[in-house]
Amino acid sequence: MAIYHLSTKPVSRSSGRTATASIAYRAGIAIKDERTGKEHDYTKRSGVVSTRLHTPNGLNIERNELWNLAETTETRKNSRTAREIVVNLPYELSGRERIMLVNEFAKDLATQYGVAVDVAVHTPDAQGDNRNHHAHIMLTTRKLERLESGRVALTSKSQLEMSNTQLKERNLPTASDELKLIRKQWADLTNKHLKEAKVDARIDHRSHKDRGLEQLPTQKLGWEASAMERKGIATDKGDYNRMVKAFNQTLNQVAVLDKSINEREQSNDRLREAIDQATKHVEFTARNTARTDQNTDFANKVIDDAQQQTEEAERVIDRADRAIAKHQRQLEAKQASVATLAPQQIKKQSEVTAVTEPSPDVFKENRKIYLEYAEKIETTAKSILSNQLKMLQDKGKPALAKFEKLRDNEPLFFGKDKWREDKQNALNTFNAIKERHDGIKDKGVTDEHLEQAKQHIAKHEPSYHAKAQQAIEILQELDRAKKDDKAKEHGADFHAQQGQTYSGKILRSDETGIVQQTRNGTIYHPAMSGIEQGKSYNLENKGDSYNVQQEYEFRKTGKSLDQDRDINR
Length: 569
Description:
The protein is of the alpha+beta class and 569 residues long. Helix content is 55%, strand content 17%. The chain has 13 helices and 16 strands. The protein has helices at residues 19-27, 63-73, 95-113, 164-169, 175-196, 222-230, 236-288, 292-353, 362-407, 416-443, 447-460, 462-489, 551-557, and strands spanning 6-12, 30-32, 39-41, 48-54, 80-89, 117-122, 133-139, 142-146, 152-157, 494-495, 501-510, 513-518, 521-526, 536-541, 545-550, 565-568. Residues 342-360 and 553-569 have low confidence and may be disordered.
């Protein structure tokens, strides 16, 4: 299972950091800071496999020029000059696929927020986890735009750097809510790339609580197993309970970390408000009092203290995020251990209940439950889509109203440049929201909506969800048993299952299908042709078709599945 990790932190002068030094180190390059005159040279560092700079609307600017501009544009001693996002890249993807994934994400951020986005992809540390492929994403705190003079400049603060008061005035989500949207955006994009690469692993940006992950119950030992355990003799049930307890303990640790992140994000929202109020105080005292210097120094101290607290909170969030990733890996191992015992327990239970002949109406009853469940999923998915579209419509109305107001109120003499800029920004904001709305509407109900619907039902109607899952399992088992009976009619032990790959010698090949000898018994493949009897093949069942390759060729030449022949059933 791929690991989810996304953390963000500011690059601020109050913490002794600069945008030029940060990008030089992340990208493994040399940059001279024009503001301080200091040379930052990290050309000898290793582990940087790819770098790329993304700009909104394809604006042309060199990396050195951009990050020096980020430093010189800010004048306060405690200014933020950049924002850094760190993401974990799935080790299940190839190097090229990881680079494509993170650059698509960076391009989306540049378009979405109108900022420049610089990406550096790093390999795992030699001493660390060899799965820890990651990327550092540096964002400018201001929008990158082309002025009427033709010069490219950093202008107004981006949405990610606004206070909640400013965001509320513009009818935009709070800073923490926007971060949650970015976290979801990264998860959705990563899962898309994993699916395209035919990797089964998926990531989830939500907390374990939001995902409805609950602690597993232990099993009652019984007097015999209890007696053996007291004597120091391990039993299957005892081993199972110990793994469940370890799993539950890790789940609790992850929940604590999730809570820590949420609390810190809320604290950051309050600190941003303090920074905004202090900044306004500086501006007010500069205009309205004779004690300007004293009041300004006090307000700057408030700003500095608030920013330091914000940065510390974001460092805590970053550490908690990394800890969650570590615990997640522990969770995977324990889940795998528990999962190995669970089928045994299920098998034992089935052996007990198999004595009773199922009623003739079992199939009908469970199919009815399944069809109702499928209909409920479809209805819920449509509702989720409808809510998505409504949220975007509500988000787009203020932007459109602002544009129309500006369009209808052109100044006669002064302020035309500012008017044109504001009008264009309002139009760009509306068009971006409309484009996103229309794109989602055109796609209609997607696999993602259906998955969200399933999760919604599982969370809000757990009993009904469990009943439906049980019905699905029963139907699958009945279908498997029916197909296996058909396989036995053709002299095989089992019927081929969709999604499985079978390797072995072909025992029979005729118009009725193929019988193949495998390690786990003989397999029946119905309605296949073109397979030579007596030779060994790898057969991948894709449902309505097969990927077929001679086994000796696979071992000798190492051909990929792209070179396989596709044979329809």
